[in-house]
Amino acid sequence: xxxxxxxxxxxxxxxxxxxxxxxxxxxxxxxxxxxxxxxxxxxxxxxxxxxxxxxxxxxxxxxxxxxxxxxxxxxxxxxxxxxxxxxxxxxxxxxxxxxxxxxxxxxxxxxxxxxxxxxxxxxxxxxxxxxxxxxxxxxxxxxxxxxxxxxxxxxxxxxxxxxxxxxxxxxxxxxxxxxxxxxxxxxxxxxxxxxxxxxxxxxxxxxxxxxxxxxx
Length: 216
What we know:
By secondary structure, the chain is α/β, with parallel strands linked by helices. Helices cover about 45% and strands about 15% of the residues. The protein has helices at about 15-30, 40-45, 50-60, 65-80, 95-105, 115-125, 150-155, 170-180, 195-200, and strands spanning about 5, 15, 90, 105-115, 135, 165-170, 185, 205.
């Protein structure tokens, strides 16, 4: 029996692609660099803000070494002000979280989004009751797919890997769950495709949030 679920945030609980695209393009435009469509940002995200900026610069054909620091700083400031731009929960997520709460299943968020932004998104979308713990990117915890964040959540909950599920929408999430020894579920409503999820170790793939209940 599973006693807790660790969720990714972007592309799993929350549709944040508009905010990421808006902030990324605004940062690039300030330095005369080209913008990109949302679908390109699906593949820029997943490994933290610094890697997103690096990938965007490479796609723009810019010299990463000479542009990175200024574009990254601009992106961080813009995102801090606009991280809720057109952000919304995916359909079915709020009922799923409410059902998990009713069943006594603990829930956590583990995200490569900066910690303060992760907490703000979760609080504004879901309040303070539906999720038990939120952990975004912190200086003292390696980014996913390093399993350190997942281990920290396990320790906080006082549970073993076999008592948890890990749920996410990308290969990074699948690698994180597997590295922590947790059964890992890929979701198809997020930023990446089924093939990526399976190739990176998903134990199962689901197309609707309520399907997760079958794995508890």
